Amino acid sequence: MTPENLLILAMGLPLIGVGLVFLFGKLPNVREAASLTIAIALFGITCLLASHVFAGGRPEWHIGEMIPGFEIAFTVEPLGMLFALVASGLWILTTVYAAGYMRGNHESHQTRFFACFAAAIFAALAAAFSANLFTLFVAYEIMTISTYPLVTHHGTREARNGGRVYLGILLSTSVAFFMFAIAWTSNIAGTLDFRLGGILAEPLADGKITETQLGVLLGLFAFGIGKAALMPFHRWLPAAMVAPTPVSALLHAVAVVKVGVFSVLKVAVFIFGIDLLRTTSVSIWLAYVAAGTLVTASLVAMTKDSLKARLAYSTISQLAYISLGAALATPASVIGGGMHIAMHAVGKITLFFCAGAIYVATHKKKISQMQGLGRQMPFTFAAFLIASLSIIGLPPGGGVWSKWFLAVGTVETQHYLLTAALMISSLLNIAYLIPIPIRAFMAPQETTADPHAAPAGIQEAPWMCVVPLCLTAALSIVLFFTAGSIYEVLLPLVSSQ
Questions:
Q1: Which parts of the sequence belong to the NADH-Ubiquinone oxidoreductase (complex I) chain 5 N-terminal domain (predicted)?
Q2: Which of 51, 171, 417, 493 is the most buried (most CB within 10 A)?
């Protein structure tokens, strides 16, 4: 099969998955088997496609122009390929986990849930493989709309309010800022195509845009891509925590937020070009905004007793690392930002899997209620500890490498306040993550109403919840030893600039 056909098949499989989920909606076992089969097939096809891309190929698929100059087209390059591998690979484990969670909690509307899940994966792949800004914008909006029913899944007043904040912020920022940035870029550059090295250096040299205007344009992109959750456009992310935990895992690790930071990194590398950003210094303000976001969100996370709320603000902080890497625009920082897409995805999905498993097994949501639970749920809390080490940036978690390259980027640019921000944030990561497994393993367990009751023993969540979180925790360690491969994948993004 040719690489182009593999690309078309990869794009089509999630849509086939949507159809199969609705077709077998009244047969839960068949429905979920179909979802899992499509997820496995997609990952296999994506791996085959990756073998061509990493060997230097760039498969393309041009569907056609909607209006002159605005084409739907796809091209696979290394950064998008890495994102696609992460999204398709984690979809397999999330599908298994979601089946266990949704059944364990006796959730309603499960057919709609799995259909929207598949649609969100389609949007993630469409963004990953987008050949131009217009295609990226369309994929970005499909992602927002397809995940709205997931955020409001429970149908409660709280869920509807959370959904309104989610939809309101993401749609308003994309229409007010992102769309305008695309139109401005098309006007001055005459193209929206992603090109390694960027497309804005020539308009700057020709006087079609000044350096000050270039900084404004970057701001429109950075804040227009609201899914990157830069402050002050971050409130949608904590608001979306009303969704079921598998949705939170999708939002924070597999698709939604990763589409945001992937888009920021893609714009920096393929629209502005890292040479242009570095020589003009128009992106340094964005680096400090990202640094402020990653420290402030970490401080807020420390105040949250709700486990999902704490993880939500942790995600805001961790996403800012990737925006920081894009803004610094050095080879090390761009590679660090690209690495962090994969490292954070695996670590954070593990943490949300653990939060969901704790809720399924004990119906506890608050950290203050989790003392002693580690002896009841040792696999879950051991996985939580491993993933926390990766998020913090400590061995043997893979996150140590992405943070290392980001720190190198701050030193190379001699912005030592940014270096300090990275170090402070990592210390805050320790402060809000490590006490959770310590409380679970070391603190006395809450006594039961009956003083003569036997010890609870090991009472983990259903295996369909526990096995995925154990595998993703193990993958965090694997990434520590295989980070060199990710480095080689991302090197073409910076080697020719």
A1: 70-114
A2: 493
